[in-house]
Structure formats: C-alpha cells, structure tokens
Amino acid sequence: MNQLNILEEKAKEIVFRVSDHPQDRYKLRYEFYQKYGDPFIKGNEGLGNSELAFIEWEIKRGTLNPMNDTKPGSAWWREVNSHFLYVATLAQLIKESGELFQGLPVPVNFWLDYINKPNELTWYRAHNSSIISGYDVADSLAFKENIYEQYFMNIVLYRLLYAQSMVEGVSFGILGKIFANPRGSAVSIITDIEAFYPSHYPLSKEDIKYVTHHAHNLMGLIEDIFDKILILSHLDKLYAEAAKWNNSPEVTKFIKNNKPIYPISQSEFSSEHFNEKLTTNKIPIS
After folding, report:
1. Cα separation of 168 and 234, whole Å?
2. Measured between alpha carbons, how far is 181 from 38 in angstroms, rounded to an integer?
C-alpha cells in the first residue's frame, strides 16, 4: 500500500467514525475551518460560515440521522455529505503530510488549492465540485426519495451554483452578492426560512407547496422572485458555466432544455417526464 492509499484509508476511517453522529460530522468541518477558515481572523471559521450553517440545517431537519434511528435520516443526504467530508478530509491529510500526488480527484485538488490560498473563489470551487461529485455518486440513492424531495435536491443545487456565479464574475444584483458571500450570515438566515429550506423530513404538505412554487402567500412570492426571476431562466447557461468553474462536466447531466432533471441514473429523464411525474402527484411545477 502506497502513501496515498494509506491517506485514503485514513480519510475513509475518519468519515466512517462520524457517519452515524450528525454533530460529529459538523465538528469535523468546524475543526477544519478553525485551521483553514480565514487567514486574517484567528479562531473564526470565516469562509466556512455558510457551509457550517447548511450542515446545521441538515442536522435540524434530521436528514443526517442514522438509518436505524427512531426518525431515520436520508440515505441520499447522508451519502452526499459523507462524500463531501471524505474529499475535503483527504485533501487536509495530503496537505498535512507534505506529500505531492498526481491524479487526485478534482474536488481534492480544489480543496488543496483552497487550503493553500483561502478566498471566496477557491472556496466555492472546492465546495461546489465536492457537492456536484456527491450528487453524481449518490444518484441511484435519490430514487429512494419521493418526487418532491428529488425536485428539492435540484433547487438546493441550482441555488448553490447561482451563489457561486457571483463570485465567478456573473452579477445578478445586490441580493445575489449578499447571498454569495461564504463568510457572511446570509446562508444561516435563509436556511431558517421555511419557505426556502424546510425543516421537516420527509417534506410536509406545506413544504411541498413551497418546493413546487405553489405557496400563495408573501413568503411564496419572495421565493418565486428569488428562483423564477433570478435563477430559473438561466439554468442551461448556469450549469454549463459551473461545469467549467468546477472542472465538473457531470453537472451538465442534471439539466436539459433549461429544466433540472436530477436524478438521472435509472432512466433517461427528460424535463417533460420529470414535470409529468410531479403533475401526477397532484402539485405540478408551473
């Protein structure tokens, strides 16, 4: 076993140890950002603020709970998070070993770039390439979720890519710039808004109205403006650009004709097929 194999096995072991302990998943990332979160603010997680806020929301929602819990978690959400933890942890172990390796996975290289030069751009590329890779790895598990949860996975992804677009130089106005800052508290605030990030798992009937943009109230209107006006009309371009930013061509499989179509592994989904499935479940996407 060579040195890289040893570090890979160590990273897997670290992730396995925390896999059934949501707070330990959080702690693993918190400790990472205590070391590498902000070069200018000691003792502050800095650039990890938005990621940590999102993990806190996942914990609150229960998606990271053990599968044998009285309220089981989600195999899909757990796998995406575990894959994320693995690639980031492996990068940290490689950095701290002082070794150089060729042919590393794309997200690992991006995390090494971030550790060596922490800023908003390197953070987004490390974070988002890891998430895209996690979506690809966990694709088959997504089919264990109901159709509304599957569509919500798409919403989470395109909002994340939209936030990155501001840092990459595409401007969508002041709201986007605020939301895009990984150092800020915007993600913590927005994940506390049920209309954007529901706290129930599985989704409640009220949650489904928001996820499918059928909540006819003030918060539903705000969500419509955020998604439909700022993001949804640009999806093809957004995903094509994200594939370049993150060296992740697989993300283009999750979009077709400007419609999100994740997951894709068990059939050749078209956007029409996805929307048809939602329609047969009573609440169509408009």
Report:
1. 15
2. 13
Token representation of residue 230:
């700022």
Nearest C-alpha neighbor of 151 from the set 286, 250, 274: 274
Token pair for residue 190? 């927005």
Which residue intervals of 138-270 are DSSP H helices? 147-167, 174-180, 186-190, 205-211, 218-224, 235-245
Q: 31 vs 48, 68, 87, 236, CA distance in Å? A: 10, 27, 15, 36
Mean pLDDT of the chain: 86
Torsion of CA 280, 283, 284, 286, to 10 degrees: 170
Beta bridge partners of residue 260, listed in sequence order: 255
Quote the CA–CA distance of 205 and 117 in Å, as a whole number. Answer: 44
CB 74 within 8 Å of CB 156: no
d(Cα 194, Cα 121) in Å, to the nearest integer?
Answer: 29
Domain definitions of the chain by residue range:
3-280
Beta-carbon count within 10 A of 44 CB: 14
How does DSSP classify residue 227? Answer: I
Q: Of 236, 254, 257, which Cα lies nearest the Cα of 132?
A: 254
* Statement: residue 144 has pLDDT above 50: yes
| pTM higher than the cut 0.85 | yes
CA distance 121 to 117: 10
Helix (H, G, I), strand (E, B) or coil at 30: helix
Kindly report, residue by residue over 240-253, the tens digit of the pLDDT: 999 999 999 999 99
pLDDT in tens, 60-72: 999 999 999 999 9
User: Tokens representing 134?
Assistant: 């996690």
* Dist. CA 176–CA 129, nearest whole Å: 20
268 Cβ neighbours under 8 A, 6+ residues apart: none
